[in-house]
Structures are given as C-alpha cells and as structure tokens.
Amino acid sequence: MGELTSLAGRAALVTGGSRGIGRAVAAELLTRGAAVTITGRKREELTAAAAELADGPAGGDTSRVLAVAGNAGDPAARADAVDATVAAFGGLAILVNNAGVNPQFGPLVDADLDAVRKTFDVNVVAALGFVQLAHRAWMGAHGGAVVNMASVAGLRSTGDIGAYGAAKAALIRLTEELAWQLGPGIRVNAVAPAVVRTRFSTALYTGREEQVAAAYPLGRLGTPEDVAGLVGFLVSDAAAWITGETVRVDGGLLATGGLG
C-alpha cells in the first residue's frame, strides 16, 4: 500500500464526528496530518471522542483536535463550529457533512410531516448551511474540499426509509450544483454508503446480519473505515480533478440491481 496523501497544514470540520462514520473520518484525516474539529449533539460523548482521537490518530497532539458541541440543524451551532475551527486552526480547508437523521420509517403516505421536515432540514439544509458558512469564513478566498455523506438510499428506492432516501437524493443533486457553482477553487463530492455497521444503522441489520450481508457481492456489511478511506482520498490532492461526483461505497450492492 502506498503512502497516504498528506493533509498536513489543513484544517477540517467533520459534523456528526463523535461516533460511527464521522469519527472514522476524523481519525483518517488526523492520520493524514490535518487538524480536525468534530461536532455532535451529546457533549460528553463528543468530548470523550475528541480525547481518544487526540491520543490515537493525532499522536498525542491535543492541539490538532477540537470538539464543538451542537446540533447540525441549529444555525447558531453551525456558525459556532465554523468560527471555532477558523479561530483554533487558522483556516477551514476541508468540510465533511456527515451529520444525519432518519426519524421516518414506513409508507410516505402515512408519514409524520414534521419527521419528514426534520429529515430534510438536517440532511440537506444543514449541509448547505455549513457550506455557506465555510465559504464565507475561508474557502471562498482560499479554496478547499467538501464531502457530503449521501447514501445508496438516495440512488435507489427503499420502500421503508423513503424520506431519508429522498433527502439523500436531494443532497446528491446539491453536491452537483455546488461543484459547478464553487469550482475551480472548491471541490464538492459525495459518498454513498450502503449499510455500515454503526449505531445509526443498527435497526437495518440487528439479528439478521448474515442475511443482510448475503445480498452484497463482497459478502459483508461495511465498516466506518471503509467509508473514511474514501473520504480521505476525495479531500486530498490525489483527487484534484474530481468534483461533482457521488461515489458508491456499497460492497457491490447496487450492482445486483437492488438494495437487498
């Protein structure tokens, strides 16, 4: 395996970074040399994650890890996270919009519209809000890279998590629009995972993991690290001519023609 493309000297903001995919992404960026801010709603969990990231991937350098508690759906919390990142690290070259929610399950004709509204607000509107703030605070003048956390549910109908899938489809379109509008200085891409073994997706495989994994050509569910490695590549100079893309990281699931 070749040496990872360095991100030394760059500051990153990873939303939803206290656990799961977000935490793995933060670890990947720290391993590549970046300074990283993580956000999350639960302060204690976020603080503990930041301490572990500093001790591990950051190599004991606590100055490269910052935790800013707050809800991605709150405009004030978004502004606090961006401002704190620029103040602590002198810039904001990398934004990973990972925070997401999925409060709706079942037929959309019976869906609670408040739950649908929340799904779009956090998964789509908040992501755009973070991009706007990052652009004003740093990227507009200096350039940078954005990765939005989409989903295979945004590429193919699921039946049961329709609001989530529709929101992720909107995020994919948002990624393309932003890539066009913000180039050449800012690259904007998305990644679309299938089921990854995290607390967020537990309900999709608990008690039947072998059955779910059997639908994947690679024979297993994803791990947070599977996704994090791709994000690390997309924000690095190794992906300097890639923008507007949504890259599937799904173990081959969509190649089978379904979501399993």
From TrEMBL:
<dbReference type="Pfam" id="PF13561">
    <property type="entry name" value="adh_short_C2"/>
</dbReference>
<comment type="similarity">
    <text>Belongs to the short-chain dehydrogenases/reductases (SDR) family.</text>
</comment>
<dbReference type="InterPro" id="IPR020904">
    <property type="entry name" value="Sc_DH/Rdtase_CS"/>
</dbReference>
<protein>
    <submittedName>
        <fullName>SDR family oxidoreductase</fullName>
    </submittedName>
</protein>
<dbReference type="InterPro" id="IPR036291">
    <property type="entry name" value="NAD(P)-bd_dom_sf"/>
</dbReference>
<dbReference type="InterPro" id="IPR002347">
    <property type="entry name" value="SDR_fam"/>
</dbReference>
